[in-house]
Amino acid sequence: MEGVDYLADERKKTEFDVEEMKIVWAGSRHTFEVSDRMAKLVANDPVFRKDDRVMLARKDLFKNTLRKATYAWKRINELRLSEEEASKLRSFVDEPAFTDLHWGMFVPAIKGQGTDEQQKKWLPLAYKMQIIGCYAQTELGHGSNVQGLETTATFDPQTDEFVIHSPTLTSSKWWPGGLGKVSTHGVVYARLILDGQEHGIHGFIVQLRSLEDHRPLPGITVADIGMKFGSGAYNTMDNGLLRFDHVRIPRDQMLMRVSQVTRDGKIVQSDVPRQLVYGTMVYVRQTIVQDASIALSRAVCIATRYSAVRRQFGSSNGGPETQVIDYKTQQSRLFPLLASAYAFRFVGEWLKWLYTDVTQRLQANDFSTLPEAHACTAGLKSLTTSVTADGIEESRKLCGGHGYLASSGLPELFAVYVPACTYEGDNTVLMLQVARFLMKTVSQLGSGKPPVGTISYMGRIEQLMQCRCAVKKAGDWLNPNAVLEAFEARAARMSVSCAQKLSKFSNPEEGFAELSADLVEAAVAHCQLIVVSKFFEKLQQDIPGKGVKRQLEVLCGVYSLHLLHKHQGDFLATSYITPKQASLANDQLRELYSQVRPNAIALVDAFNYTDHYLGSILGCYDGNVYPKLYEAAWRDPLNDSVIPDGYEQYIRPLLKQQLRVAKL
Ligand SMILES: CCCCCCCC/C=C\CCCCCCCCCC(=O)SCCNC(=O)CCNC(=O)[C@H](O)C(C)(C)COP(=O)(O)OP(=O)(O)OC[C@H]1O[C@@H](n2cnc3c(N)ncnc32)[C@H](O)[C@@H]1OP(=O)(O)O
Ligand SMILES: Cc1cc2nc3c(=O)[nH]c(=O)nc-3n(C[C@H](O)[C@H](O)[C@H](O)COP(=O)(O)OP(=O)(O)OC[C@H]3O[C@@H](n4cnc5c(N)ncnc54)[C@H](O)[C@@H]3O)c2cc1C
Questions:
Q1: Which residues make Cβ contacts (< 8 Å) with residue 400, sequence separation at least 6?
Q2: Beta-carbon neighbour count of residue 152 at 10 Å?
């Protein structure tokens, strides 16, 4: 029935001010208003419809994305949207496109690694989309190992040019988004060669296609790499391959903020550390952490609303069956994901602050916080994308059979999201970077340089190695200090244990390789501690609105105690807690689930997602799921005719043949 809210009874149970929670989720009233306006603008514009997307073949899918992306650009200009509004609008269009890489990597690479003159030359063109750019780093043979890239950029002093070349098949650029069919330019990463000497990997702005007829420029071979995981999904994106055959570019197209090449072919290193060549990756990893909370909250919103609609078993005297959300098993799978979405939102907010802070420091030639920023962005990117990808799949299972329907929105969300565990750094490779940072920190303890920031807890290493958990009853686990100390002690002890084992190897690199699985576990423990501690820090802030802070405290408890329960092996093995204390944590967790239950629908309403953005019948705001599923089935092209295409050719002869067999 039109206009009936099938979740109204659920919404009546709410114990907090949802409108205020929407502001907390958005980050500020201003951000909420911009988001809300842009989401509605997209949802109300028929050009941005997306319910037909899963039916489209690759070429139509790609053209459809071009149409939407260029229409979005037209609207951005017509409405004179700010950068913030434009970026929100693009995200609500909700379709991976070349514009993600243009705005998300090409422009930041020039901003971060270009000199002032280079920025002045290239950024205005990019801002007006008079050139379209991609980020061409990964090659067929090398992705994780950036130092192993094979593309060469050899300086020719005769002509004052670099010669960009792909010497082998494995040096072909492979994967860059937007490269396959759209980009006119790329920031291409290559080995710098001066007078026969190698000088490491640097970024170069290379024009790839003609601005007149879009044909590849001489010496350039470029194409799409082919279909990817899932139908629809990430196939809207033209990930590309690229080969260079001695392509010449002017010297001033090497991005020269970190190192400069002079007219006579000499390299000059600025004060800036060479790792800044990786700066765009740090920036993007930070944005990926923010996106993780968005993707996870979408999945959780769908699974929570549907869990309140769906009923199975438990009917007595002909009354309604039990809402599946009331099953403790459903709650124990769903509510930690809900809590994780909020936790990732807050850690993402903090990481954005950290990134802004490190950027300002870099501008003032203070490079001291760069290692921590690298470790935090790498580790949190790895942790949040892994949990989110698994969480989307768990949400699908939480929706039973209907979760497998494309109209649930979950299969496509999963297919689009899951490469986040790989792109911008494979999650294991990134955790190993965190582990290196931890081992370095442990080795420097006692050197007189106290660890700071997220690693400052290591400064209390002696206390953390010896302390024992003081929890005596379940309610003691609600004490933030008890929880924080548990996570700090676990992280510190796992790191120290790895460091002790490492010290037994005569070759540290061999030791690191041998112990890498343990090191990854220590890095995960450290990253989980960061998320827990940033959630607690959020709760220290003034949070207005009836019951809002209380709900966040409950979610923070769910987040930390479900981790403690899930990883109790770590906490027990490091002897910080006893089995009894682990069991009390689980008792408290169950109690917290009961407190989430009446507020679950309101907690996902606070994400403020339009039905358009969610793109899910199971997650629709009014909960009117069954009629919508029934109608959607009839819209499938297979139901255009009662007798399917192919009946005469295949089904009928088959049936006849079976008749003949039966007669024999
Ligand atoms: C329904 C549909 C809709 C759903 C929508 C859902 C939402 C979707 C969301 C978003 C969609 C957006 C689309 C996103 C587009 C995808 C874009 C992807 C683009 C890419 O993938 S680009 C390629 C990225 N590549 C990588 O990340 C490579 C990973 N490898 C590396 O980073 C490095 O090689 C390495 C770090 C692993 C190793 O490097 P190496 O030089 O060998 O370094 P080491 O010897 O280990 O270390 C040396 C030294 O440097 C320090 N260091 C390393 N990296 C950095 C850094 N980045 N910054 C600062 N410092 C760094 C390291 O710690 C060492 O320091 P030390 O010497 O120990 O002090
Ligand atoms: C959808 C998508 C979009 C992308 N977009 C871009 C783009 O725009 N531009 C761009 O340049 N690139 C892009 N990439 C490439 C991406 O950045 C790389 O795929 C990624 O960095 C992983 O590198 P790899 O493929 O070499 O993985 P590999 O390193 O080959 O990983 C394979 C396996 O080896 C393991 N492994 C590797 N090294 C180690 C180690 N040292 N220790 C332990 N285990 C290890 C990994 O954990 C993994 O299990 C994209 C990729 C995808 C999937």
A1: 310, 324
A2: 19
Q: Which ligand 2 atom is nearest residue 177's CA?
A: 8
Q: Is the dihedral of CA 253, 83, 69, 410 positive or negative?
A: positive
215 belongs to a structural domain: yes
Handedness of CA 636, 642, 645, 649 (dihedral sign): positive
Cβ(413)–Cβ(406) under 8 Å? Answer: no
Boundaries of domain holding 179:
107-270
Report if residue 230 sits inside a domain. Answer: yes
Provide the CATH number for the domain around residue 194: 2.40.110.10
Three-state DSSP at 610 gives coil
Give the model's pLDDT for residue 356.
96
Query: Which residues line the annotated binding site for FAD?
Result: 138, 177
pTM passes above 0.80: yes
Q: How far does the centroid of ligand 1 lie from the alpha carbon of residue 323, in Å?
A: 44
From ligand 1's centre to the CA of 146, what distance in Å? 9
Indicate the pairing of strand 240-244 with strand 220-224.
antiparallel
Atom of ligand 2 at shortest range from CA of 105: 8
Is the pLDDT reported for residue 270 higher than 90? no
Binding residues: 138, 177
Query: Which residue carries 């959300």 as its tokens?
Result: 325
Chain centroid to CA 612: 21
Q: Residue 125 falls within a domain, yes or no?
A: yes
Q: Name the residue with the closest Cα to ligand 1, atom 53.
A: 275
Residue 213 lies in a domain: yes
104 lines ligand 2 (CB under 6 A): no
CA neighbor of 617 nearest in space, from 301, 172, 279, 167: 301
Which ligand is located closest to the Cα atom of residue 421? 2
Q: Is the pLDDT of residue 85 over 60?
A: yes
- The secondary structure of residue 246, as a DSSP letter, is S
139 C-alpha to center of ligand 2: Å? 10
Q: How far is the CA of 136 from the centre of ligand 2 (A)?
A: 13
- Helices 18-26, 548-566: inter-axial angle, 10-degree rounding: 60
Mean pLDDT for the stretch of residues 549-574: 97
Q: How many CA atoms, within 13 angstroms, populate the side-chain half-sphere of residue 598?
A: 9
For 156, the enclosing helix (H) or strand (E) is: strand 152-156
Which ligand approaches the C-alpha of residue 515 most closely? 2
Type and span of the H or E element at 394: helix 370-398
Radius of gyration of the chain (CA): 27
- Containing 351, the helix (H) or strand (E) segment is helix 328-363
| Complex-level ipTM | 0.96
- Annotation marks residue 349 as catalytic: no
Residue in 83, 105, 108 with CA at minimum distance from that of residue 257? 108
Mean pLDDT of 566-585: 97
Give the nearest ligand 1 atom to 137 CA. Answer: 23
Which residue, judged by its Cα, is nearest atom 33 of ligand 2? 426
Distance of CA 308 to the CA centre of its chain: 28
Catalytic residue among 394, 412, 424, 553: 424
**Which is the closest atom of ligand 1 to the Cα of 284?**
17
Question: Which residues have C-beta atoms less than 6 Å from ligand 1?
Answer: 94, 96, 100, 135, 137-138, 143-147, 177, 275, 278, 281-282, 291, 295, 370-371, 374, 412-413, 416-417, 423-425, 429, 433, 436, 440
Domain count, the chain: 1
Those residues with Cβ within 8 angstroms of residue 342's Cβ, 6 or more apart along the chain or in another chain: 25, 293, 535, 552, 555, 559, 603
Per-residue confidence (pLDDT) for residue 660, from 0 to 100: 58
**What is the DSSP code (8-state) at residue 133?**
E
**Phi/psi at 422 (5° precision):** -115, -50
Show the tokens assigned to 376.
């935090």
